[in-house]
Amino acid sequence: MDFILLKQDQATKARAGKLTTAHGVIQTPMFMPVGTAATVKGVHQHEIENDTKAPILLGNTYHLYLRPQLEVLEKAGGLHKFMNWNHPILTDSGGYQVYSLSGKRKIKEEGVKFQSHIDGSYHMFSPEYVMDIQRTIGADIIMAFDECTPYPCDYSYAKKSMHMTHRWLKRCCDRFDSTEPKYGYDQTLFPIVQGSVYKDLRKQSAEKIASFEREGNAIGGLSVGEPHDLMYEMTEIVCNVLPVEKPRYLMGVGTPSNLLENIALGVDMFDCVMPTRNARNGWLFTRFGDIKLKNTRYKNDLNPIDKTCECYTCQNFSRSYLHHLFKIGEMLGLRLNTIHNLFFYKTFMKEASDAINNNTFKKYQTDFLKTRKANE
Questions:
Q1: From the CB of residue 100, how many other CB atoms can be counted at a distance below 10 Å?
Q2: Of 76, 172, 301, 316, whose CB has the highest number of CB atoms within 10 Å?
Q3: Is 125 helix (H, G, I), strand (E, B) or coil?
Q4: Catalytic residue among 9, 51, 268, 271
Q5: Residues in contact with 187: Cβ distance below 8 Å, sequence separation at least 6, in sequence order
Q6: Are 256 and 262 in contact (CB under 8 A)?
Q7: Measured between alpha carbons, how far is 288 from 308 in angstroms, rounded to an integer?
Q8: CA–CA distance from 365 to each of 261, 345, 354, 357, 373 (Å)?
Q9: CB 334 within 8 A of CB 279
């Protein structure tokens, strides 16, 4: 992987760059649609590539490990070939999913023992095994195994957890560096900063993570219920420490306003289920405010979702038709909604990148959010 920082906005810390992987080049800042189990729910790969213009997808180690299982992926030649996606893929290590299992897992220094949410069977994830799993999955960018602390979380637990995440990172790096990729192309390992919402822990963790000198770095343990102001505060602390010349990935974030604020703080990469999950619930994002299709006001509205949007859905279908599909539970509606939301996210991230290159990002951010708020 190679990352080139192309432009730094003059009024903020927003950055525009170019990230190159074995499966393609990605302009940053960028947003990754979530394809947890080798699929972005509701749409197929042709639509993702051609209708939403997404340059990269996110898969999940925990879910892919359980289904379809590693032997299937290895026999197929890795996740790219298995799902017929010849563009970059990033895999989350499964740390967040294991964290979310709550009563069905036990965390030790060795790793995490957990019960499958599918059949109750027991499994063990160690840092070393998670590296082996992600070698077999074959994503371009893979994540270190960490513990994602909940919110709220007391200081002593957050500190203890952070130090264990750092020890696990050392084991991840040792295993990753002592093994080879399986499918003829390089993979890149990103460490993850933790520390909950404590300033000193976040700074300490960012410094420790940076000392490993990997090709990129991630910020985890946010967007887990904390107020947005705290998220921004922690992100700013971390971005002030992480090396400028390497990409920064804020995991699991979020709303359009979240993305723009964190871009202004120096983040380059994002992922979130929000655009796809909201689409399946009839919630559509537009630059003029959000549309909730279940509202009867759209029953006879023959306008497109957004007259300025160039996505396939807006160019071909009305709010009335999409409202009808949602009301009758037709799966086509979920697909069309998802195409629109993902295209919207890709579009405004591209606009943000252009604004950075033109030194107008702050104005773009202000105008974008003002227009959305005025129409909500």
A1: 14
A2: 172
A3: strand
A4: 271
A5: 134, 135, 138, 139, 140, 141, 142, 176, 181
A6: no
A7: 10
A8: 8, 14, 12, 14, 12
A9: yes
Is 354 assigned a catalytic role? Answer: no
Q: Tokens 């999913």 belong to which residue? A: 97
The amino acid that residue 222 corresponds to is: L
Q: Give tens-digit pLDDT for 237-266.
A: 999 999 999 999 999 999 999 999 999 999
Residue 123: its pLDDT value, please? 94
Q: What one-letter code names the amino acid at 318?
A: S
Say which amino acid occupies 42.
G
Nearest-angstrom CA–CA distance, 215 and 217: 7
- Res. 375 pLDDT band, cuts 50 70 90: confident
Terminal CA-CA length for the chain: 41
Tens digit of pLDDT for each residue in 82-126?
999 999 999 999 888 877 787 789 999 999 999 999 999 999 999
For residue 77, the tally of other CB atoms under 10 A from its CB is: 13
List CB contacts of 297: < 8 A, sequence separation 6 or more.
none
Distance (Å, whole) CA 140 – CA 1: 8
What's the whole-number mean pLDDT along residues 164-173? 98
Domains and CATH numbers, the chain: 17-271 (3.20.20.105), 273-376 (no CATH)
Q: Is 271 one of the annotated active-site residues of the chain?
A: yes
Give how far the C-alpha of residue 290 lies from the chain's centroid of Cα atoms, to the nearest Å.
21
* Rounded percentage of the chain residues whose pLDDT exceeds 90: 95
**Which residue among 9, 92, 146, 268 is the active-site one?**
92
Instruction: Give the chain's radius of gyration (CA, Å).
Output: 20
Long-range pairs of 110-115 with CB within 8 A, sequence gap ≥ 24: 111/145, 111/168, 112/147
Asked whether 219 and 193 are in contact (CB, 8 A), the reply is yes
> pTM of the full predicted structure?
0.97
Nearest CA among 257, 280, 282, 283 for reference residue 270: 257
